[in-house]
Design brief:
The complex is a heterodimer of chains A (about 130) and B (about 850). With about 130 residues, chain A is mainly α. Chain A is built from four helices and no strands. Chain B is about 65% helix and about 0% strand. With about 850 residues, chain B is mostly helical. In chain B, helix 2 packs antiparallel against helix 15, helix 21 packs antiparallel against helix 22 and helix 22 runs antiparallel to helix 23. Classes of the chains: A mainly alpha (about 130), B mainly alpha (about 850). Chains A and B meet through helix 2 and helix 4 of A and helix 8, helix 9 and helix 20 of B.
């Protein structure tokens, strides 16, 4: 087993890597908004073009698609939250690392917010008929 | 780049002050109209906002007087409609947003350790547009021509058929004019927060108020364009007969509602978040400890900002949208309460963990906590679709939004005004008058609006000018009206206190509340240049950690401690880390902002009076004024005195780099433009999908390849411009002017292509909404293409004059952003309006 060396670690920005970039403060919830509009618009278009039979209730192809997309996006946002949190943990816990750590931790919380928002907003698709 | 020296040789503060005052001081007399200093402009913003607040408040009193008793003949239906429309519109557009932008413009540079905002002239322009737009809009009331279709201007009520007079035009043109002001101020604020801070102040160390204004201003930039677009389309429908919202011609009134609420729901948070930022500033100072959960508060504000864009349909629950779609918005409406709740808990925890001291500002903060929580709870109730249907368009909704807006904005704002008043005036207010004012306002407010929930639950609809006796509404209406006058006395007491304190208030010490943030180091009242030297800040609490900062700053012991060169300058930093990147040179006093604002006001008046030929002439004059203003920029001698050889080692003036604030300003302008264009494309797809029989023909009248050719021409222009920028970056300005002329030529050819399409498409915008949208899109692209071409030509001329060169390479990259927008916009138009119909349009 190779012993660990005590070479100087990378700078705080490099330690956080791409996951520590400030764009992550906006990316998660921007994508959430895109998902939100796509779901709302997509349901409207589907109802105009090929509405599922109301007799099927909430169990139909449209609701299934909404839920599948939501599950995929929730998972992706959840992963992004986890990656950001790991990036925050890689940043040295000193004054120089305070900025990158702040960005990465905040991004993690915001990705988690996006995941929660996606899951909760899509939840009614388990209960409601889509086009009536 | 190296950091500027942390300690400079000690200088005599009086001598230093005289040196700075010679460069930054305001002229007196009529030349005061040319002032661009952020402190002066912001004070004008706030004073004007108070005037509009008083006018709108008086209108509210008239409404309450009319409703005090059943069958009241004080006002007729027509007058009542005008009064409630003007009350709501003025409160939202002329008071709530501008006054908070004014407060931000006053405070932010001081809090962030800068000498001014990034675009002082834009700030002054923003003020003049606000003033002129506000005067034009308010004059409609005096002329008896005020809009009367409600502050939301729903079609068809606001269309020509049901609003044939000038009232709706006053709203559409006047408010759009004021929105120019709001957008300009928002762009100025964002760039200032990101790029003009103290050395070393990272994002994680910014005062919470700066975070709240950053998020709010970005929301303005993205949230206002849908309404600007809607207003332009509705005015085109009213003035030129184009069909957008008329269902008999393929339009849809609900498109207006979507565009309006896409703006108007985020608007609620645009109003609330700055106030929340004020509360987050005040609570730690009076709790005498740092804010608990700084990061959680930031995350909550960002979360609130984004989620607020997913709520707009909850204002449209009664229009017949399917249940599942309504449920999406109901869930999002409930979700947004979570981040707001996190902020509330952070404030309570801060008070809990600290050693709170009572004071007048804290009284208003406590009033805010009580009222806003109540308003938030009724907001969650309204998110439930069945309950929403029950109370839709009743006084319950009126009560709810007054709880949210007055509780969530006015109370914290007044708390903030009391907190920063000693900073602004250098004097302390009267505690006795201030407390009397608070209690009268608090009791009056709750007596008015708590009771109004009951009136609404009893079924009284909004916007009715009178009611019959015996419906159970008599007593609650009378109580509401009586208490509304109590509230008015409260506000009057506050105004009396403010007026008297200027003369009789005792002198304020330098930092009367023992606050932690940097604005209290800029003097009470502040100096025209804020700081004689710019300190390095690496903490969230600079004055708690270094109480001697005011003295060392005044003695010139920090960065840029001289003004003998004649330049107004401040440090430009990296947006995230706060590392110093360059020295931003700021423009001095100028008449251009006033002239530009006045010219646009003339344009607004010409359009109102339907004098379209003079309007074209004034529009051209306005463009000429704006371009002339832009000429005095960058490396122009009047924009940057001296060559900057006196700068700290390794730093350059921003016009000698590739990344000054103008690049960020243009980027944000393009973001706003993109939001407007996205709203237009949404409108196109919406009408196509939703309107019965509105399917788009498979063969587009625009043809298949014409827009592709236009896109190619704009794309070639962009490539040419980018090539010139790449060469500059590589250290060569050979052929720079030629490149810019080539770009101009390609832009002109692209515009020619658009004109050809317009001439050959045989569109009939007055007959079909489909054609109206296509026509508008083509004109939108033409306008942008023409502007891009003119700016490229101006760049070529600036190269010729030496204002753009190898050592001043800043501007072509800024103009390239507009070219990028033109290229992408025309490509999208081609894809969605020419190609997509081929796949999904109706067969011939």
């Amino acid at each position: 087993m190779t012993p660990r060396t005590h070479a100087p670690g990378p700078g705080p920005e490099r330690a956080a890597g791409l996951a520590g970039h400030a764009w992550h403060l906006a990316l998660g919830l921007t994508l959430w908004f895109v998902w939100f509009c796509a779901t709302y618009g997509g349901v409207a278009v589907a109802c105009a073009v090929a509405p599922p039979s109301p007799a099927l209730g909430p169990v139909n192809w449209l609701n299934a698609t909404v839920l599948l997309l939501a599950a995929t996006c929730t998972s992706a946002f959840g992963c992004a939250a986890w990656v950001s949190l790991r990036a925050a943990r890689r940043v040295p816990a000193d004054a120089a690392g305070a900025g990158p750590r702040f960005i990465a931790r905040s991004a993690s919380a915001l990705y988690a917010t996006a995941a929660l928002s996606t899951a909760l907003v899509a939840l009614p698709a388990m209960l409601l008929t889509p086009c009536t | 780049m190296t950091e500027p020296a942390a300690t400079a040789p000690l200088r005599d503060p009086a001598e230093l002050h005289a040196e700075f005052e010679a460069v930054w001081g305001n002229p007196k007399g009529w030349r005061a109209l040319s002032v661009v200093n952020h402190t002066s402009v912001a004070k004008r913003f706030m004073a004007t906002g108070v005037v509009f607040f008083l006018i709108a408040g008086l209108l509210g009193m008239l409404l309450r007087a009319q409703l005090a008793q059943p069958g009241q003949g004080f006002m007729g239906a027509a007058a009542y409609n005008q009064v409630f429309t003007m009350h709501g519109t003025m409160m939202m557009f002329l008071f709530a947003v501008p006054i908070q932008q004014g407060l931000a413009a006053y405070l932010l540079p001081k809090m962030l350790g800068a000498r001014d905002l990034a675009f002082p002239r834009l700030g002054a322009f923003s003020y003049w547009c606000y003033l002129f737009g506000g005067i034009i809009f308010t004059s409609s009331l005096l002329l008896g021509l005020a809009p009367d279709a409600g502050w939301f201007m729903y079609t068809p009520l606001s269309s020509n058929t049901y609003s044939p007079g000038m009232g709706a035009d006053f709203w559409l043109l006047g408010i759009t004019f004021i929105e120019i002001s709001t957008m300009a101020a928002a762009i100025d604020i964002v760039v200032s927060i990101l790029r003009a801070r103290a050395a070393g102040m990272g994002l994680h160390q910014m005062p919470i108020f700066a975070w709240s204004m950053l998020i709010t201003s970005l929301m303005v930039i993205v949230g206002f364009p849908p309404l600007i677009l809607g207003s332009i389309l509705l005015e085109l429908e009213r003035a030129a007969g184009w069909a957008f919202f008329d269902p008999t011609r393929g339009g849809d009134p609900l498109l207006w509602q979507h565009l309006f609420w896409l703006f108007a729901h985020p608007e609620v948070y645009i109003i609330f978040l700055p106030a929340a930022g004020v509360v987050s500033m005040l609570v730690p100072v009076f709790a005498r400890r740092p804010l608990v959960g700084y990061r959680w508060v930031v995350v909550s504000m960002i979360g609130t900002g984004f989620i607020s864009f997913g709520l707009w349909v909850h204002h449209m629950f009664a229009v017949g949208i399917p249940a599942l779609s309504q449920a999406f918005f109901a869930m999002a409406s409930m979700l947004v309460a979570i981040p707001t709740g996190i902020q509330l808990f952070a404030w309570i925890a801060t008070l809990w963990a600290g050693r709170p001291v009572w004071s007048v500002p804290m009284l208003w903060v406590c009033g805010f906590l009580v009222i806003f929580v109540a308003g938030g709870l009724t907001g969650v109730m309204l998110a439930f679709v069945p309950f929403n249907w029950q109370v839709h368009d009743t006084h319950f909704v009126v009560a709810h939004f007054h709880y949210v807006l007055i509780g969530g904005m006015l109370f914290p704002l007044i708390g903030g005004i009391y907190y920063w008043l000693p900073h602004i005036s250098g004097r302390m207010p009267s505690e006795r008058l201030a407390k009397t004012g608070f209690w009268l306002t608090f009791i009056g407010f709750n007596g008015t609006f708590l009771i109004m929930h009951w009136t609404g639950l009893l079924g009284m609809p909004r916007r009715v000018y009178t009611y019959d006796a015996g419906l159970g509404w008599d007593l609650p209406n009378l109580v509401s009206s009586v208490f509304s006058f109590v509230m008015a006395f409260g506000i009057a007491t506050l105004l009396l206190d403010l007026a008297l304190h200027w003369r009789y208030g005792r002198k304020a010490p330098l930092n009367p509340w023992h606050a932690d943030t940097l604005e209290w180091a800029s003097g009470t009242p502040p100096l025209s240049y804020n700081f004689a030297s710019l300190p390095r800040i690496a903490t969230r609490h600079p004055l708690w950690d270094a109480p001697d900062l005011p003295q060392t700053i005044a003695a010139g012991q920090h960065a840029l401690p001289q003004a003998a060169h004649g330049r107004r300058e401040t440090l430009g930093v990296d947006a995230v880390s706060g590392r110093v990147r360059e020295v931003i040179h700021l423009p001095g006093n100028s008449w251009w902002p006033l002239v530009a604002g006045a010219t646009l006001a003339l344009l607004c008046l010409a359009l109102l009076l339907k004098m379209y030929l003079p309007a074209v002439a004034v529009a051209l004059a306005a463009v000429a004024v704006l371009l002339r203003w832009s000429w005095e920029n960058g490396a122009h001698p009047s924009a940057a005195a001296g060559e900057g050889h006196d700068l700290p080692q390794g730093l350059k003036l921003h016009s000698r780099t590739f990344d000054g604030p103008g690049l960020w300003g243009m980027g944000l302008t393009m973001l706003a433009d993109a939001a407007l264009y996205a709203s237009l494309l949404f409108g196109w797809l919406y009408l196509w999908t939703v309107v019965p029989g509105g399917q788009v023909p498979a063969e587009s009248p625009l043809g298949t390849w014409a827009l592709a050719a236009v896109t190619a021409l704009f794309g070639a222009g962009l490539w040419t411009l980018r090539r010139a920028v790449r060469r500059l970056r590589a250290g060569s300005d050979a052929g720079l002017q030629t490149h810019l002329w080539w770009a101009t030529g390609l832009g002109v050819a692209g515009c020619g292509g658009l004109l050809w399409v317009l001439a050959h498409a045989a569109l009939q915008p007055t007959l079909r909404a489909h054609d109206a949208v296509l026509n508008f899109t083509l004109l939108f692209l033409l306008l942008h293409g023409a502007l891009a071409s003119v700016l490229a030509a101006l760049q070529a001329l600036r190269v010729h004059r030496g204002h753009v060169r190898l050592s001043a390479p800043y501007e072509p990259g800024v103009v390239a952003l507009l070219w990028q927008f033109c290229t992408v916009a025309s490509a999208l138009a081609w894809a969605l309006m020419a190609l997509l119909p081929m796949a999904f349009g109706a067969p011939p």
